[in-house]
Amino acid sequence: MADETSTQSSEQQAPSSRPAHSGPGAGAPRTPRPGGSGGPGGRKFFRRKKVCKFCTEKIDAISYRDVRLLQGFVAERGKIVPRRLTGVCTRHQRRLSLAIKQSRNIALLAFAARF
């Protein structure tokens, strides 16, 4: 019995093998960020739902020859802009990417930006 109590007390006094968490904000409660959407005087961010340009204007066929239209959906570096940024629906995004690729192949659009 004496051995059991001495081992338990030595285990309690021994430091743990893992170091305590240190760094900025260790153990301190978090405070809200300044200028956030929840504070007084802060504006609440309202994101507008993006609507497909082709659906609203009732454009069914996206032509590879319409370079002005296609350039609006190609980034400055030559990449095709994703749906989440343009707001185009899935069906039209697929047709749009095909039209961009076709116009690149016949040299109406550039594959990459010039430097």
TrEMBL record:
This is Small ribosomal subunit protein bS18. InterPro entries: Ribosomal_bS18 (IPR001648), Ribosomal_bS18_sf (IPR036870). Residues 1-45 are annotated as: Disordered. It holds the Pfam family Ribosomal_S18. One of its GO terms (molecular function) is small ribosomal subunit rRNA binding. PANTHER family: 30S RIBOSOMAL PROTEIN S18 (PTHR13479), SMALL RIBOSOMAL SUBUNIT PROTEIN BS18M (PTHR13479:SF40). Part of the 30S ribosomal subunit. Forms a tight heterodimer with protein bS6. Binds as a heterodimer with protein bS6 to the central domain of the 16S rRNA, where it helps stabilize the platform of the 30S subunit. Residues 1-16 have a biased composition (Polar residues). One of its GO terms (cellular component) is cytosolic small ribosomal subunit. Belongs to the bacterial ribosomal protein bS18 family. It comes from Edaphobacter dinghuensis. GO terms for biological process: translation. Keywords: Ribonucleoprotein, Ribosomal protein, RNA-binding, rRNA-binding.
